[in-house]
Amino acid sequence: MTTDPDATATPARRAPAGAAVLREDVTEAIREAVVEELASVGFARMSIEGIARRAGVGKTAVYRRWKSKLHLVLDLVAVFAVDGLPVPSTGSLYGDVRALLEVTSHVLRHPVASAVIPDLLVEAARNPEIADAVRGALLDGQRRMASGIVSEAVARGELEEGADPERALDLAIGPLYWRQVVVRDAVPEGYLDELARSVVAGLRAA
């Protein structure tokens, strides 16, 4: 019989009746198991059973935290996404775009992101629900950053009123996703500088 690890927790305060007290060390063990499982078998073959076995917990401990393996993986990806980070404020359009590229490139280089994102994109092509969830986890923070960058540039007079943040995001992030996620090629020295200059030129020409 498997012992429920959450059942041994001693709450700091009385929990509401019927509420589960989730131990943080168990949550972290599950997240680590997900990373290992993804590296071993990939998203498509990954299972809650395999994750629980690798983490040394019962399946119930996993399902108390996430309702499916997709939600578990998206939660993990969100840790490394740009959502919640401040909008770059360097004082220039070029500097802000360059900062956005640096943050995004760093996220895409992370071992968790590089292991998860390609598999998620394949699954998203087959399943609209997964596609919506992936867009939310990966793009919402970047859209917020792009919108802030464009607004600040308009206020400084670097861009015309009505400049499109979505165009900025396409110009900036599209090449990075292609290089780092699809082709899985290294980012050479100076590449982000050149890309930032191209993005700025493209936005001003629009």
Explained architecture:
By secondary structure, the protein is mainly α. It folds into two domains: 5-65, Arc Repressor Mutant, subunit A; 78-205, Tetracycline Repressor, domain 2 (Orthogonal Bundle), CATH 1.10.357.10. It is built from nine helices and no strands. It is elongated, with a radius of gyration of 20 Å. Residues 10-19 have low confidence and may be disordered.
Write the element-wise H/E pattern from the N-terminal end onward.
HHHHHHHHH
Looking at the overall shape, the CATH architecture of the largest domain is Orthogonal Bundle
Low-confidence parts, pLDDT < 50 over ≥5 residues? 10-19
Radius of gyration: 20 Å
Kindly estimate the percentage of residues that lie in beta strands according to DSSP: under 5%
CATH superfamily of the largest domain: Tetracycline Repressor, domain 2
Give the overall pLDDT as a whole number: 83
Q: How many helix segments? A: 9
DSSP strand tally = 0
The percentage helix is 55-70%
How would you describe the shape?
elongated
In short:
The chain has 206 residues and is mostly helical.
Q: What would the keywords be for this entry?
A:
206 residues, Tetracycline Repressor, domain 2, elongated, mainly alpha
Please outline the helices and strands.
Blueprint: H1 24-45, H2 48-55, H3 59-63, H4 69-80, H5 93-109, H6 111-126, H7 128-156, H8 165-182, H9 191-205
Helix pairs in contact: 1-2, 1-6, 4-6, 4-7, 5-7, 5-8, 5-9, 6-7, 7-8, 8-9
